[in-house]
Structures are given as structure tokens and as C-alpha cells.
Write a structure and sequence with these properties.
- InterPro entries: DUF421, UPF0702_alpha/beta_dom_sf.
- The chain has 6 helices and 4 strands, in the order ααααββααββ.
- It has a 4-stranded antiparallel sheet with strand order 2-1-3-4.
- By secondary structure, the protein is an alpha+beta fold.
- The protein has helices at 11-32, 42-59, 65-88, 90-96, 111-117, 121-130; strands at 101-105, 108-109, 139-144, 150-154.
- The radius of gyration is 22 Å and the shape is elongated.
- The chain starts with 10 loop residues before the first helix and ends in a 20-residue tail after the last strand.
């Protein structure tokens, strides 16, 4: 039964640690901003995984609460600095994030772009179904976003055009 519960388990410390680390994350996020947990780049993804790992270490008593809090605050400060650098330095922004990629241009599937992005046609079609697309004619664009999400831009009015501003920064070719 030790694998279910052990008297040596620091249950009260885990509960208190959870509460305290929750408060630390809320306070620091309020100071630095919600952008810290946004999913925009590979950097943001790595940050979120690292925060989860630190929280896990704290709650399983692998590290002290203060050590974990310092690690979380440090990561949040690094994220804050990185978001500033992304706005200030184009080369830094290009270094840590991908530009979105066009997967469909109106009703035309861009097979080379699918291949480059390692997305199968059936996955693309599943995204069209999720967006309630009934016919390829409704599609104005399908974009693989820098976050890995797929955006489907469509309309039921076949003559309605897509404003070019919406596709600003989207790569047409890999």
C-alpha cells in the first residue's frame, strides 16, 4: 500500500507549497503580464514546459519553495525581456519564431507547403470540417500559425474577398 500513500509523504507541505507557488505565479504574472503564458513562439512553449517542471519539482519536494519561486520569477523576467527584444529587434524575432505559412489559397491546396509543414491532406481536411467548411469554394485561406495552430478563413458568400491585411506576414512559400 506504500505506492498509494505513505505516512512519510509531506501532504500538508505539498498543499501549503501549492498555495504559495500559486500566489507567486499570480503576483508575478500580474506584474509582468499575461503575455508570459501566451503561446506565440517555440520560446513561449519551452517557457510553459519549464514552469510546469519547476512547479512539479516544488510540489514533489524535489526543491525548496524559495528555490522554485526564484526559478519561476527568473523565467518570467527572461520572458519579459525576450518579448521586449522581439518588438525591438527584428532579427531576434525571426530567430525565435516562425512566420505563419499558407496551406490553402482560396480553394487551392498548396501541397508543397503541406509537405514542408509535415501536415497531411487529411489533417487539413479535418481542420476544414472543424471550421464548418462545406465546400472548398468557401475557403479564402488556411494558415499554419507560428503557434502550430491552423486557422481557417472562410465565408459562405462566394464573392466575398479576403482583406490582404489579414494575411500580412504569412509566407506563401516555405
Amino acid at each position: 500500500m506504500e505506492w498509494i500513500y505513505s505516512i512519510k509523504d509531506p501532504i500538508l507541505e505539498t498543499i501549503l507549497g501549492s498555495l504559495l507557488i500559486f500566489i507567486v505565479i499570480i503576483l508575478v504574472t500580474r506584474i509582468i503580464g499575461l503575455r508570459s503564458f501566451a503561446k506565440f513562439t517555440a520560446f513561449d512553449f519551452a517557457f510553459t514546459v519549464a514552469i510546469g517542471s519547476i512547479i512539479s519539482s516544488i510540489l514533489t519536494s524535489s526543491t525548496s519553495l524559495v528555490h522554485g519561486a526564484v526559478a519561476i520569477v527568473s523565467l518570467l523576467v527572461i520572458t519579459f525581456i525576450s518579448s521586449y527584444l522581439q518588438r525591438a529587434l527584428k532579427f531576434y524575432s525571426n530567430l525565435i519564431s516562425n512566420d505563419p505559412l499558407l496551406l490553402m489559397d482560396n480553394d487551392k491546396i498548396l501541397h508543397d507547403n503541406l509537405k514542408y509543414a509535415r501536415i497531411e491532406k487529411k489533417q487539413l481536411i479535418a481542420k476544414l470540417r472543424e471550421a464548418n467548411v462545406l465546400d472548398y469554394n468557401q475557403v479564402r485561406a488556411v494558415v499554419l500559425e507560428s503557434t502550430g495552430d491552423i486557422s481557417v478563413l472562410h465565408t459562405s458568400n462566394k464573392s466575398e474577398a479576403l482583406n490582404d491585411v489579414i494575411l500580412e506576414g504569412v509566407r506563401k512559400k516555405p
